[in-house]
């Protein structure tokens, strides 16, 4: 029963002996000047009474019924707030009814579910990065053994997306930790099949592709709802204890590679020159062959033509051949041959006969 003074009684215990008496039958100690006049402070009971009257006017059904309505309204508002949830653009939601996930996937936006009978779990579906391995040179988390018995410290990253939110949330207890363990195991397996040089410089891409395939196959068998989009080796370093010796080995390897490259470059240069010379010699030989063959064919045709003419007029042809032959033999001769019958032969180089005498004189 609320504390009221509707019947003119005392305080909430019903005691008191009349107006202006306290709950124990005594009147309140009031300062001089009396009552609630302008000269004294306001009466506490009057303030409470006026507040009760105002509350009865505001709340339907009086003070007792109004409290129930307020409580019900507060509960309803709280329930409505719990029933409404928001899925962000980079998220997907899965509703659970009595702990069992529904088949529908909640897309980004505002959604409603029956709380507390239903609940919701959200997961990010954008590309996420998982760093695995050594974070510093002194860390031993990424130590791996290669096929050539070298110990290396490998740090790499796995990029993945959630392709099936329901499977990601409920098929595997801790998908991120499972992905990390699977990725670390796959990297150790692939590094163990290859020499250390492949991880350091030359063949990182095949290692990354092999690790990605192994991780994706394993996560698919687990039904984790994860799609691995990429694997990147970020850093490969020797253990701190052997870093200096390893650097010497790397430097020697680089010098060896440089020497091999110089030798290959010199070999290619000499081979190029030799191939060029061989091609030129072959071309010269082919040209010489063609020239000799053509000359021989021309001589043969000339001999055939002369033979035909000779068969028609043997005497004339024989004399002409003799004269042409003697012309070729005697054209550079400095002697004058005079025939007793014909005199000086006209085919001798008479214009050149006087030049030696003039130069000598």
TrEMBL record:
Keywords: Hydrolase, Membrane, Protease, Transmembrane, Transmembrane helix. Residues 7-20 have a biased composition (Gly residues). Residues 1-46 are annotated as: Disordered. The chain crosses the membrane at residues 58-81. Pfam families: Band_7. It comes from Rhizobium redzepovicii. GO terms for biological process: proteolysis. One of its GO terms (molecular function) is peptidase activity. The keyword Ion transport does not apply. InterPro entries: Band7/mec-2_domain (IPR050710), Band_7 (IPR001107), Band_7/SPFH_dom_sf (IPR036013), HflK (IPR010201). This is Protein HflK. Residues 21-31 have a biased composition (Low complexity). Belongs to the band 7/mec-2 family. HflK subfamily. It is a single-pass membrane protein. HflC and HflK may interact to form a multimeric complex.
